[in-house]
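> @MW can you paste both from yesterday?
MW: sure, first one:
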Amino acid sequence: MPFNLDSFYEANRRILIWFILIGLLWLLRDFFGLIFITFVLAFIAIPLVRLGRDKLKLPYRLSLTLVYIFFLVVLGSFVHYVTPSVIGEASRFMNNISEVRLKLMELKRDIGSKYPGVERSLHGYMRSILDENTQRVIDRELKLFQETINLPDIDRPELDNDNHISAVALEKLKKYYDKEAELLVNFLITKQMGKVREELPKFINHLYQATGTMLLALLFSFLILFDSVRLGDLMKSLHDSRLRDFYQETAQPVIRFTYVVGRAIQAQAMIACVNTFLTLLGLIILGIPSVALLSLIVFVCSFIPVLGVFISTTPMVLVALNTGGLTLAIAIVVMITVIHIIEAYGLNPLIYGKHFKLNPVLVLIILLIAYHSFGLWGMILGVPVSYYFIHDVFGVPLWDERRLEPNTID
């Protein structure tokens, strides 16, 4: 039987259409960030425009324009106030780097005096972070220092077992350990500052790209909503064109999927509010200044899965270092870690589960698998995509619907 293209298309139409759609999405993968932010801004703007139109009786386009002016004011204020604050705290930290070294040494001495057995383990851990060349340099410096203070080679026993050593030798051994700690701290700080200087241009470049993407997304979402009626009619006209098969097959699933993603944005907004409240409470308890500014940064960055935690933590750690030293900075890191654990294993499953009517345990499993499989986009779209396939494609009943079913045994 000869091959007939029309018969082949009719027999495999659905598969071919979805294969083409997935291929187009794959070709546009570099623009996912722009597309997603455009969708998010449009989804947030629509209810605000309706509020201005229905409550304030404003014309649709005037209400839309006012909403986007508000967006620009918020974005401009965030950049104007947050960026100088972060740069100022970073500059203060760089200027006080010698003070940070002293505080690290004081913390090490404090730990060594309270827990003598931990000192050698702490030195070993710091050595493990450094490369072999740096360790050799440290060993040479220590050898010279040992000769300078005339410390005999006594295999460096632990301090709490040095009863057989004279008081003079014991004092020299303590000086040796202090010198080793000083060298380790200095080289560690130098190494980390080198990494910061190396990554700083990349970070600045990412900020410029993010700012450009945000401005483009604002423009595109505004133009889409401004001319939404004609764009809607244009999309409907595809029904009577040669692309009608494509339109009929994909229109409803795409609309349904965008609604599911919109629900995910609502869930993330609730998580951001709770996350910001917990952070604000922690900052007040720890006595950190500029709580309003830092809380604003946390709220905005809460919409950026995974990466947002690190972005929002940086200014808080810098403020803590400049205000209360290393101890306060460590307390901030512990606080953020606890809040992140609460968010990842408590808030995300419960709030996403409530919005999507999914079992919280299933939501947690989806988030873990999506993050490890697809990274950032897995965290953003893992739950809505899974929800769409589970309930819209495979037709599995919703979680609360299954709970309402009577427990009957056939």
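MW: second:
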Amino acid sequence: MAPTVLITGASQGIGKATAILFARKGYELVLSARQAANLEATA
């Protein structure tokens, strides 16, 4: 079972970069952001 990471502000900037980094390393992600359309693009 992979560790899970919660990232807020994942739709842009540092939050998005952090989400991509953790995803590449195999972590399970829980993402949140104020802009749903941008968040879907990140996911």
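> thanks! Residues 4-42 form one domain.
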